[in-house]
User: Fold this.
Amino acid sequence: MNTSGPSGRGYVVAFLCSLAFLAIVDRVCISSAKSDISAELGITDTVFGWVFGVFAVGYTLTMVPSGWLADRYGPRKTLALAVLLWSLLTAVTGWVNGTGILLIVRFLFGMAEAGAFPGAARAISNWLPVQERGLAMGLLNTGSRLGAAFGLWAMSVSVLRLGWRFSFVLLGMAGFLWAVLWFSWFRDRPIAGLLGSVAETRAHPQDPYVDQPAKARDGSLLRSQSVYLILFQYFASQFTFFICFSWLLPYLKTQYGLSGTMAGMYAAIPLYCGALANWISGTMVDAVYRRGHRSLSRRLPAMCGFGLAGVAVLAAASMGSANGFVFCFSLAIFGVDLTLSPSWTACADIGGRHTGTLSGAMNMMGSIGALVSSVSFPYLFGLTGDIKCYFYLAAFLNFVAMASWRRALRD
Assistant:
């Protein structure tokens, strides 16, 4: 394989997309199995909110360390180890016999999965020139959305036919295979040199993020307003999005009286919209960047995305039918996912040799947003008796995030 050419970089991006696909399949399978697990283990909805949320706690605690490990030891070792660990825990989930042990396994599972996306961001930063990273980051997140859509449907069918316990074991076996193939094939950097050639890295010598020495950026990260704005906006995006991985399928079943299979099909629609949004956003980021609008290439897709998400979430709250709700919520997820490629690309822009660490910090804020989302969904309904409160809060966060991007990347 010509590791320095476009085909070699394409293989790397494709492998990382399969990583994102696998990671999210393993993450959302708990949502498809929620009803069966609750019935067998006697778990209430409020407690199951913590089963969803405790994943985010573990994910948050190890996000920055996982990014640092990817920077220090390279994505080859760190991603192989992460996938091995979370696949083991996925398989173990099929053997739990009580609420306490399920909470512990999901917490550890979150810790293990924390290394996936920072490690992938580090690999993309190592292998791709800056003018190609937007689409690569978009495709990475496209893989995750397709994984979620497939996982919600496939796990619903698997639970129905094979039972939830054996379904988790099968998913664990798939992860072991991925880890072995990745470690055997991947190398941390192209053989012919970082980013294929020096010329590619200097395609835009006027870009403030490309040619300045990494050391010059290191000390300025904590003093950069853009860093904190990017961290917050990722909290907002994941607050809105995480309902897809937690309460959306159970909500559709109970609110609209859908069967498990039908709810799984409906719950997958927003994720397919998210997959399309990531591809569109990544293409837009690179296209605008090549026209010389470097800061705007990150800010414009993100601002449009958060604006659309805020309006669509408000509309979803007033829908009385499953079709209307899914249509509006799909628009919201389309908008939220327009922001992902700019977010991850901005981390590579600003982070330099600390891309993994900064990506980990951003993803940590996202996991905090996911935790707050998964817990607040049932609690806000319990406190107010009106599920619309959750959607109003999500809309508010989206609009604030849109304003944050307006000021980002200006320092």
Q: What stands out?
A: The domain at 6-192+220-407 is CATH 1.20.1250.20 (Growth Hormone; Chain: A;). Residues 274 and 334 are 5 Å apart (CA to CA).
